[in-house]
Design brief:
By secondary structure, the protein is α+β, with helices and mostly antiparallel strands. It contains 15 helices and five strands.
């Protein structure tokens, strides 16, 4: 490392976050005109980023989330230009001994004004940091309290984390070896299981530390027999251990294989419990029937908007051969819910699949873009790759 980074061994998280902020401000203010503010959000804004040391220096596990807020009358830059600046910032940080994935999102003030009462908006309002420009820009966000958060958004958070887990299959034996990235994503899944449950319990808080404290309070003796999807005390202990690892990975052990096996079961039980709450279904109703009830509750316009996004993203005319199939699927579900159903069912079956206890010759659930038939991988692994691809293309960056 250069001399400018030698102090990172004293207070790595704060120093590294400062380095990221300075490099982002330096490059973004040169690359873009009409910038109003740059806002840091996500775990770094909450002082909960996970930095680990390796042979090359430091590595941030997870992404840096930043909003580039432009003035009201300014045209937003194209995604390609924003992506180029992200890569340039990453290269500059790498030269300083820090590996980090930078995510810049160009938005207008209207974006902040129109944010819905969801987890992202509340955390942005409560914990977002303006690192350059108009320090009052966060006041544009509508006033949101934890009581305003929608239960569906908490369920979506859980489904997003489940879909991201399947990305760990991209490298052979990554799950069993529990690589650095797999350990981190296991911890994140535990933490956001806790986040999702707390929204349903009316005890949500904006930081992982606060959520862990609230979960431990819920797990006290009064929690016995109150209808939770699993015993809260051992679950709260797991979440607390993962919180300690996330904020201080140098001082705490990461989750191992046994904890990963446990989190699959926790995710399965919590997902079913939350769908039951959302649909008013009792525990005696089968999983497929609960899903069908949930799909019938979805707004038809939002379902159509999701498929229009798919067609636009794939190219209106390039994708015409897929239109008949997409029209048939549109009667049943949105693209988002197709991905969620396939990802959750496959994730819940992973322990048995990895152990060879069950075999699956054909994908059980359709997707907007189907698995490649040309791969030599087992069918369930091809399905996992397809789920991740569909998630990245049609779910991750849209609310449809």
């Amino acid at each position: 490392m250069s001399d400018g980074t030698t102090l990172l061994t004293v207070a790595p998280a704060r120093e590294l976050t400062g380095l990221i902020n300075r490099e982002t401000v330096r490059q973004a203010t040169v690359a873009f005109d009409n910038l109003r503010s740059i806002i840091l959000t996500g775990s770094l804004a909450r002082d909960e980023g996970t930095f680990e040391r390796d042979q090359q220096g430091w590595k941030l596990l997870g992404d840096v989330e930043l909003l580039l807020v432009f003035h009201r009358t300014a045209a937003l830059p194209p995604e390609e230009r924003v992506g180029t600046v992200c890569r340039s910032i990453e290269s500059a940080l790498a030269l300083r001994g820090l590996a980090a994935r930078i995510g810049l999102s160009a938005v207008s003030p209207q974006y902040l004004l129109s944010l819905e009462p969801d987890i992202f908006a509340y955390e942005l309002l409560a914990c977002g940091r303006v690192i350059w420009g108009d320090s009052e820009v966060l006041a544009l966000i509508p006033d949101i309290s934890p009581a305003d958060l929608r239960l569906e958004d908490a369920w979506r958070l859980l489904q997003n984390r489940i879909a991201e887990q399947l990305d760990l299959l991209a490298e052979p034996a990554r799950l069993r070896a529990l690589s650095q990235r797999a350990r981190y994503h296991t911890a994140k899944l535990y933490l956001d299981l806790g986040t999702s449950l707390l929204v349903f319990a009316g005890a949500y808080a904006p930081t992982y530390r606060e959520r862990t404290e609230n979960l431990c309070c819920l797990a006290g003796p009064p929690a016995v027999g109150t209808g939770w999807p699993f015993p809260l005390a051992p679950f709260a202990e797991r979440v607390a251990a993962c919180c300690r690892y996330k904020v201080s990975p140098e001082e705490n052990d990461p989750p191992g294989w046994e904890l990963w096996l446990e989190v699959v079961d926790y995710a399965r039980r919590l997902s079913r419990w939350e769908l039951g709450r959302l649909t008013g279904s009792g525990p005696d109703l089968g999983d497929d029937a609960v899903w069908q009830r949930w799909l019938r509750m979805q707004n038809p316009w939002r379902r159509l908007r999701g498929w229009l996004y798919v067609a636009r993203q794939q190219g209106w005319f390039r994708s015409w051969r897929r239109w008949p199939r997409w029209c048939r699927l549109a009667w049943r579900s949105s693209p988002r819910h197709l991905v969620y159903r396939a990802s959750s069912e496959l994730f819940f079956a992973l322990p048995d699949l990895l152990a060879g206890a069950i075999r699956r010759s054909e994908p059980a659930f359709p997707l907007p873009i189907e698995p490649s038939p040309d791969s030599d991988a087992p069918p369930w692994r091809r399905l996992a790759f397809a789920v991740v691809r569909n998630y990245r293309l049609f779910v991750e960056d849209t609310r449809s």
